[in-house]
Amino acid sequence: MIATTPSLNSEISLAALPPDWPGSFWLHWLVFAVIIIVFVLATVIVFIWLERRLIGRFQVRLGPNRAGPFGLLQPIADVIKILTKEDLVPGKADKLVFWLAPVVAFTPVLMIFAVVPFQGGALLADLNIGILYIVAISSVVSIGVFMAGWSSNNKYSLIGAMRDVAQLVSYEIPLVLSIAAIVMITGSLSLTEIVEAQNVPYIVLQPLGFFIFFVAALAEINRTPFDLVEADSEIVAGFNIEYSGTKFATLFLTEYAEAVAISAIIATIFLGGWRGPLLPPLLWFLIKLFAVFFLIVWIRSTIPRLRIDQVMSFAWKFLLPLALINLLITSIQIVFWPEASVWPVVLLNLAMVATLVLFWSKFFKLGGRRIEV
Amino acid sequence: MTIALSGSKIADKLKEQFAEGIVEVSRDSLLVKSESLLDIASFLKTTPGLNFDYLSCITAVDYKEYFELVYHLVSLKHNHSLLIKTRCYQRVEPVVPSLVSLWRGADFQEREIFDLMGISFDGHPNLKRIFLWEGFDGHPLRKDYNYGT
Amino acid sequence: MTGIHCVRITIMALKTEPFVINLGPLHPSTHGVFRMRATLDGEVIIDIEPVFGYLHRGIEKLAETRTYKQDIPLTDRLDYVASMSNNLPYVMAVEKLAGIQVPERAEYLRVIMAELQRIASHLLAVGSLANDLGTFFTPFMYMFREREKIVDLFEMVSGQRLLYNYMRFGGVSHDIPDEFLPALEKFANRMPGFIDEYDQLLAENEILLARTKGVGILPKKLAINISASGPVLRASGVKWDIRKADPHSVYDRFEFDIPTGSAGDCYDRYRVRIEEMRQCVRIIKQAMEQLPQGKVLNKVPLRLRPPVGEAYAHIEAPKGELGFYLVSDNSEEPYRFHIRAPSLINLTAIREMIIGWKLADAIVTFGSIDICLGEVDR
User: Fold this and answer.
1) H or E element that contains B83
2) Is residue B35 part of a domain?
3) Chains A, C: CB contacts under 8 A, how many?
4) How many whole angstroms separate alpha carbon A297 and alpha carbon A300?
5) Does any CB of chain C come closer than 8 Å to the CB of residue A358?
6) Which pLDDT does position B139 carry in this prediction?
7) Hey, is C36 helix, strand or coil?
8) Which of A269, B48, C34, C290 is deepest in the core (most CB within 10 A)?
9) CB spacing of C321 vs B54 below 8 angstroms
10) What is the residue-wise DSSP string for A34-62?
11) Are the C-beta atoms of residues C54 and C31 closer than 8 Å to each other?
12) Is there a contact between B107 and C226 if contact means CB atoms under 8 Å apart?
């Protein structure tokens, strides 16, 4: 078992700041802030193109292929279209909240990237409470979504916003619990240390944790099968209905930036971040990012969506007990076999995942019943 | 093959109870008075051997002196069908008993006839216009409907 | 027990009130311009009122001002998704009125077209249902791939892709070109494989089962009472198919089964449609083998004046029992032209099927009834 001594400090320290940057702290911050913003925007644009092409291929058709070779200029066209549309505000909407909601929704997503290591040591701030920071900041997004739904003065967006808040709050818990197992193995909350501790990627060592985290993350970013928040066929885009123009572009950007963020986090804590043989580390990071995104798009194009009460029961009755059991098993393994070698533990974990998931799903019923009116 | 029962055969069965309700018997159909329509229909639905449990279609035709309502009844069990007609001689406010209490399939079809022909159905739970909006003037399927100003 | 003081806890109930929401008329999932006024208590629907009439074009009145032959294209526009099946009962009713015979080759061609149309309509219905469930067009695209092949076949015969106007009094308008039968054979041989592919994708899908099993139940007695027809009636357990009960043209020469459901929920309606597609392929193969040579259109007077009388003809259209009731007064235009629209009548019990379920279920139930607004509103 990979064992490291716990090194949690009780306060945030900036000790991992590169010491030889001129202009000390502020230049480093400026450079990386620009890098992060450019990275997020560029990746979102690439992801939009990738998603549309991939979904097209999954649906036995070509994706966009007119705007530029292979449709590569399609997202540029989309961006131009969205930004030049008329920015309508409904008459009775709450104007300040309406304006503020996309900002509140987008900013935390950008802030997540402050602690994601692109390479060894290449990140904005190597906080030693990295993963805790991420969990805390990403919860603020749900406030932005709810503000958007409420201020639109539209029943459909209200329904969408209510569904969204319920969903986001419920899925935080299995998410955090699966991260807790990772933190226990690593002994540190810092993302750089998590990457450096992965001689074997944690996906192999913690398959149940990966499964729970991935499903909970899909729910957090409102993706199929949990996209009932913006269900196109029921509530016609949910909290997005009344938004148009730049505000809609920001909300749309939030959605894709969240997908990028989740892919980055999964790549970091489960797949080994920037570590890998042969290729430069940044390239490995990008490859893992795209692999996770491919999985997300694949699931989106295949699976139908769940109803809200089914989503709730899935979180509370299926994922939460599994997350607790995962935590229990991990802690037993840490306490009793701290020096065991990796591979028997891996096999044991895989066997446990298979048994648990199969066993639990036999006892788990998703259906909601009709209510007597 | 769904056997279309002849009107005369059914008229024999109905003669004991509803002799005064039957107006005209023909090979294809049976014409009854509108006052006894509900009783005759209920008899047709519940009598074993007839068991007309499926109302296939209701139509209203505007012959200029009278309105004629045509009911296509089918029995799924015995696979036979029957055509019942009734007439309404008032042009101004025609009223016919509603068959919704026996066959709920008559619900929307009677509303449609009310909407487009103007025939009211006595006993219908929700008789309002179905295709045209509330406040529309006139009943378009009538032969004397002028397309108006 | 001793020493424990009971603490009275007062729970303040959260005050809620139901609100009214409009589903439609402009809505991606109402399959046309259809409006439902739903009263919701949270997510649960406590009352629903369907509102029709947004596509009312007055077809019945229009038909009274056109000659019999000019009414054939008017019937195309009823169920615009399954247009071949709309011409057929009208043409049959006029043939009954006027006593026109139909040559045998034309009867077989009519059956082939009707069955192909049934497959195309069910593909669209199941694809839209999967779309309403949230699979983001993937099964929809797969099914449209097959529907394209059917539409190509129809284009070979009638020159049109959507509103075919193919049937005529006394037969069909054109004979099939030479490339039709080989293309049809290729299609019929490959279709069962595609249906298996759809089953692989959807039939045992956990989420689909959870969303559709037991949802929107139409009990058997109610289904008969509301005069439901088509897959809606058969999924509720009633084995009534007009192709077997009252066969028209040459349906009594074919061997096929009638798939019936048992529970009357959305899942059964979906399964009945999938199985019906398999039976359609069977009928098409048999019809292709038995197809005789001969002419396809009997001579009918140009200005058709059927004798005074009335006629009712019905067929098993993909959506249910489609019937036409015609009254003639020996003139060139019909005196009364009435359409028995299956979609309108299948909607009668929509309140019982939806009330008590959640908003998401309402959409799924509504999609599984499979209506077409052109027929509902005429």
Assistant:
1) strand B80-88
2) yes
3) 101
4) 5
5) no
6) 86
7) strand
8) A269
9) no
10) HHHHHHHHHHHHHHHHHHHHHHHHHTTS-
11) no
12) yes
**A186, A209 in Cβ contact below 8 A?**
no
Tokens of C28: 């991606």
Q: What is the mean pLDDT of chain C?
A: 87
Distance from CA of C189 to the nearest CA of B (A): 31
Please list the residues that pair with C168 across neighbouring strands. C171
Predicted pLDDT at C11: 56
CA distance C245 to chain A (A): 35
Neighboring chain A residues of C43 at a CB cutoff of 8 Å: 159, 308-309
- Domains, chain C, ordered by start: 21-377 (1.10.645.10)
> Chain A partners of C16 at a C-beta cutoff of 8 Å?
none
| Distance to chain A for C208, nearest Cα, Å | 7
Averaged over A311-321, what is the pLDDT?
Answer: 88
In tens, the pLDDT along C18-43 reads: 888 888 777 766 677 888 888 888 77
All residues of chain B having their beta carbon less than 8 Å from the beta carbon of residue C308 are: none
Query: Which candidate, B113, B68, B60, B66, places its Cα nearest to that of B86?
Result: B68
**What whole-number distance in Å separates Cα of residue C366 and Cα of residue C348?**
12
What SS3 class is residue C20?
A: strand
> Which tokens is C153 given?
């076949």
Are the C-beta atoms of residues C201 and C143 closer than 8 Å to each other? no
Among B72, B105, B132, the residue with its CB nearest the CB of C226 is: B105
**What single-letter DSSP state applies at residue C115?**
H
> Cβ(C123)–Cβ(C101) under 8 Å?
no
Residue C52 is nearest to which of B54, B83, B130, comparing CB atoms?
B130
C95 and C77 Cβ atoms separated by less than 8 Å: no
Cβ atoms B50, B12 nearer than 8 A:
no
Q: What is the CA radius of gyration of chain C?
A: 23
Beta bridge partners of C35: C51
For C45, C366, C367, the CA distances from A234, given in Å and listed in that order, are 14, 12, 11
The contacts found for C288-293 with CB under 8 angstroms, 24 or more apart, are C288/C112, C288/C181, C288/C184, C288/C185, C288/C188, C290/C108, C290/C253, C291/C105, C291/C108, C291/C109, C291/C112, C291/C181, C292/C104, C292/C105, C292/C108, C293/C105
Q: Which domain holds residue B83?
A: 3-96
Task: Give this prediction's pTM.
Answer: 0.87
Query: Is chain A touching chain B, with at least 3 CB–CB pairs below 8 Å?
Result: no
Burial of A336 from C-beta contacts in 10 A (0-12 / 13-18 / 19+) = exposed
Average pLDDT over residues C249-260: 87
d(CA C108, CA C65): 32
Range name among A364-373, C70-79, C112-121, C241-250 with the lowest pLDDT average: A364-373
Strand order of the sheet with strand C19-23? Answer: C19-23, C35-41, C44-51
A213's CB contacts (< 8 A; 6+ apart) are: A174, A175, A178, A179, A266, A270
Is the separation of the CB atoms in C294 and C77 below 8 Å? no
Structural domain tally of chain B?
1
What are the residue ranges spanned by the domains of chain A?
Answer: 85-363
The single-letter code of the amino acid at C149 is: K
Kindly tell me the sign of the dihedral angle through the C-alpha atoms of A253, A255, A256, A260: positive
Kind of pairing, strands B54-63 and B95-97? unpaired
What is the residue type of A222?
N
| CB A260, CB A289: distance < 8 Å | yes
Give the number of other CB atoms < 10 A from CB of residue A143: 15
pLDDT greater than 90 at residue A294: yes
Closest to A106 in 3D by CA, of A246, A237, A235, A294: A246
Q: How far is C61 from chain B (nearest CA, A)?
A: 6
Q: What is the CATH number of the domain that holds B25?
A: 3.30.460.80
Tokens of C143: 């099914």
Those residues whose C-beta lies under 8 Å from the C-beta of residue A82, and which sit 6 or more positions away, are: A245, A246, A248, A249, A252
